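The freezer alarm interrupted the setup, so I double-checked each line after restarting. Inputs confirmed:
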Amino acid sequence: MTTESMSIFSPQLAAKFDALVQKYPLKRSALIPMLLYSQDEIGYLSDAVIDEVAERIGITPLDVRNVASYYSMLRFKPVGKYNVQVCTNISCMLRGAYDLFEHLEEKLGIGHKGVTADGLFSLEEVECIGVCCWAPAIQVNYDFHDDLTNDKVDAVLDTYRAKDKGESANA
Amino acid sequence: MPKLVSHPDEVKIISRRFGMGATDIDRYIELGGYESAKKALAEGSEWIINEMKASGLRGRGGAGFPTGLKWSFVPKQSAKPKYVLVNGDESEPGTCKDHLIFLHDPHSVIEGTIIAGLAIGSKMGFIYLRGEYRYLIQIMEKAVADAYAKGYLGTNIFGSETEFQVVVQTGAGAYEVGEESALMESLEGKRGVPRIKPPFPAVVGLYGGPTVINNAETIAAVPHILAMGGPAYAAVGSERNGGTRLFGLSGHVNNPGIYELPMGYNLHKMIYEVGGGIRGGRKLKAVVPGGSSTPVLLPNEIENLGMDFDQVGKAGSMLGSGAVVVIDDQTCIVEFALRTISFYAHESCGWCIPCREGTDWLKKSLTRFHAGFGTIKDIDNIQYLAENMMGRTFCPLGDAAAMPTLGFVKKFRKEFEDHLDGKSCPYAKHLEVALV
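Predicted 3D structure, all chains:
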């Protein structure tokens, strides 16, 4: 599938995928990156995403689901526009990650894997994200925020609220 | 943005270019970059492997296998293409050293990959980063594109008519993929379930070809070793442990961060001088010396402990990924053990029953125990379960879960007993509340 009109992805992403499958000795090696990049654009692995990725790689949709279900970053349901992922593993825990998580639950009014009513934020407790020496840390979508306190994390949430407002004003 | 720290005892080899703008290829070259790759091209495979053997460099992922020896195992002749695979899946809790390498010195990883390729006669390398490191993947991809533009990668590298291609690959969240054969599975677009060994990757690896897999820190050390010479690198470290290591101090220290110290550096000194001692003037209770899978050490065990693979091994633990997690005297060890096992239960791929069931049962037992519903028999059961996971799985994840659990139960039995018979946890649940 190389024609843009048939793709559910943007022309840029479709072109990226056309190139990606050429990069490896085996086409299938493109599968995991392709799923992650699809999710970045569409929000989650919808049936349509899985079908198109399967066709591009040349495997069955069932095979794609089997692989996708293994990886913790891949999801089959949408999350908030800003997915707040709080690491509570040992290094972060020792520096107050659970307090931070509870504070965020209270601030956002949602629990683990919850999404706010306006769809702006979702919250998730995650395993180690590799920011241990600058703990406690969170990741909002792909952006890291480290050395946090409750006050600092409030400011972080505000920057995303402002970002969203700016985007809707420009839209 | 991760903060860079520094201490006078540091010997900056791998971290030499950190904070100096070396993500820019011209700056990297100005700082001596890509000279080692050129030298490696001129001198050839045997010379590279001999320098690596002389350097005493041992795998920085945690196993500590001598890198030069590993490279020498790859057959010279092979019907199938050979591959270099760089493991940047960095997921062992406590570990964030590769994060800084990708952030500050991406070209050192590319240069090390080229050299590894020349050493084993490979034309293609993969640099695999965990999916969470998206901004670092973008840095690496830009660095690779710049290296192609300069002709340092491609079909005619450095004008030598030698081919070497590099592909940067993203993961999508899986600790298990840090295991070498699971990493190859993931790179082939499959679930990250480990393979049965033998055959070992040096013989049958990625796409069935002979493959060398090295940790990103190991690979980043390679250009520096060739620049300074193997013996000079070895001289920096301790006996049979060449060079330096990016030690990660985290937890209850005053100055957490990544410090590059010689192998064999005293752990007590690392915590009290380099790390500035325990936060809030508290006392040290325990140290996890090399990432969450390594058995805990007590304060009296670290007094004269040199941080290298052999000395930490002798002390009953492992140097692992060099991630030192410092625990103060207000921390509940049962809770710490529970958080550790919860991680392994979450990450177990489910293939081997002792790991899949064992991690889950340990998590359940410790959850109940921490909540005050444990019985004296549970302590022995936890130990029995953990002992029966050891060595009974195809990959080291089962051991990685069992080893720390055994350490906690054996060394802190009294603290487990303090939780018995409906007694609530004797420690404040949340440290920060007590601290601030």
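Quick read of the result. The radius of gyration of chain B is 22 Å.
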